[in-house]
Write a structure and sequence with these properties.
5 helices, about 0% strand
């Protein structure tokens, strides 16, 4: 398994690790999600910022159930803003998943 935050998120978006055209957009959304998680008290005390594929999950949070939830949240959040669903039903379902993870 790849421990890169960027590459994991790209994989969840069905984007190849080698395709870098959207990396800036994806990183921007990852960092927005990390900002929300920081406001919720998750992650390092000083916050965390992803710049490229060199930033690893283990640098963000130790392995465990909380990390798994964070990966899911960041993937859903990034998908919602990078590649939003085309139907309002799917958008509502994704929003409900995101809200539930925050809860």
């Amino acid at each position: 398994m790849n421990d890169s935050i960027l590459n994991t998120t790209k994989s969840n978006l069905s984007i190849s690790e080698s395709y870098t055209a959207f990396d800036l957009n994806i990183v921007t959304n990852i960092n927005a999600a990390l900002g929300v998680l920081h406001q919720l008290g998750v992650g390092p005390a000083n916050g965390f910022f992803v710049e490229d594929e060199g930033d690893l999950w283990e640098d963000y949070l130790e392995d465990g159930p909380l990390l798994s939830l964070c990966k899911n949240y960041i993937s859903l959040y990034t998908r919602m803003y990078f590649d939003p669903p085309s139907t309002s039903y799917t958008q509502a379902a994704m929003t409900a998943q995101i809200d539930q993870l925050v809860w």
